[in-house]
Amino acid sequence: MTDAHLAQRGDVAISNLSKTFAINGRSLNVLRDLNLRIEGGESLAIVGASGSGKTTLLRILAGLEEADSGHVSIDGRPIDGVGTERAVIFQEPRLLPWLSVEDNVAFPLEVRGIHGREARSLADRYIRLVGLGEFSTALPSQLSGGMAQRVGIARALAVQPEILLLDEPFGALDAMTKITMQEELSRIWREEKVTMILVTHDLEEAIYLADRVLILPKERDGRPREIEIDLPRPRDRSEARFVRFRQELLAEFGLH
Ligand SMILES: Nc1ncnc2c1ncn2[C@@H]1O[C@H](COP(=O)(O)OP(=O)(O)OP(=O)(O)O)[C@@H](O)[C@H]1O
Ligand SMILES: [Mg+2]
Question: Which residue ranges have their beta carbon within 6 Å of ligand 1?
């Protein structure tokens, strides 16, 4: 049996990944020989100072950017550009303004050759999952920021990816909406059993959502660190162990 048969769905293996950018004639070593395995169904958060390479890593995983060297494989198979088993959620949902909520969610399904009743029923299922059942005929201009981001999540999930890649998905939301969205994402992740890789600058969000937090180093010669968050779910932000994880992560950034 080959590796591909043994691997779980949504397993990600990153080996010896490096990426350098040239800026003003200087070369900037953004990722240096990164090795990481993410198990199918796991929730991994990636944190790190601004410029530490979080978005770059996510874009490489999404197939939107090429690494200089190293490999990424999913379920034992090397990735080649973007793929249907991965869906990306950015900070802004980038909805098509002339399409209703339902048509926005169905759009990527249509692109993949799923039409008519099947597309409608999948779109409806995910619109309900994100709590927008009443708004399927609304236009994006009629939604709040949090609602629009929920449509983005429904659209990403409707294609039933194995892996959900999120880059600061709630960064543009107010504090209250953000907490609600984190709770919903946690529930959806458990229900859908997808692998989740979440880039965030919000340490509390990382502890709330992740099984494991990867801390990318600021210094180019530093090594990434990992903290396992073995708290039961749903998580309680005021619980003593949660607070301790927060202190531990803050200390990683020299803060308290
Ligand atoms: N296309 C590009 N061309 C040149 N340099 C780039 C490019 N993309 C990113 N970089 C550089 O790579 C470094 C890492 O960028 P990246 O966007 O991955 O950081 P980040 O960790 O996501 O930061 P932030 O928290 O601010 O979003 C930065 O110094 C940036 O200037
Ligand atoms: Mg970024």
Answer: 21, 23, 28, 30, 48, 50-56, 201
The residue whose CB lies within 8 Å of the most ligand 1 atoms, and thus the one to mutate among 23, 24, 46, is: 23
90, part of any domain = no
| Distance from C-alpha of 47 to C-alpha of 215, rounded to nearest angstrom | 5
**Number of separate domains in the chain:** 2
- Span 120-175, pLDDT tens digits: 999 999 999 999 999 999 999 999 999 999 999 999 999 999 999 999 999 988 89
In the reported structure, the alpha carbon of residue 59 is separated from the centroid of ligand 1 by a whole-number distance in angstroms of 11
Q: Which residues form the domain of 62?
A: 3-85+162-252
Question: Do both 118 and 188 map to the same domain?
Answer: no
Separation of CA 56 and ligand 1 centre (Å): 6
Is the domain of 12 the same as that of 76?
yes
